[in-house]
Every structure is written in C-alpha cells, then in structure tokens.
Amino acid sequence: MPTKAYILIETAVGKTHDVSDSLNKLEDVMNVDAVTGPYDIISIVS
C-alpha cells in the first residue's frame, strides 16, 4: 500500500485556480480540491 499525504495549501489572492492546475499536472498528485477556510487547497499525494 503506497503512503498518502494530505497537503494543506494557502495561495496568494486570485491564484488558487493556477496552483490547482499546476498540481494536477504532477504525477504523484491523486486529488486536488479547492476549499474555504484557513486553507485554499487540499491535495492528496502518494
């Protein structure tokens, strides 16, 4: 079973979409979700 990590990301104002797109292009990124609250993105990597 591969190891999973949840990464909590704060982005600059207006950059959440760009950061999400960049993360989705990475091989080990399993999931990227934009969220509200203290963080802007939660990503799951393996």
TrEMBL record:
What InterPro entries does the annotation carry?
A: Dimeric_a/b-barrel (IPR011008)
Check the record and name the Gene3D superfamilies matching this protein: 3.30.70.920
Q: State the name under which the record lists this protein.
A: Transcription regulator AsnC/Lrp ligand binding domain-containing protein
Q: Which organism is it from?
A: marine metagenome
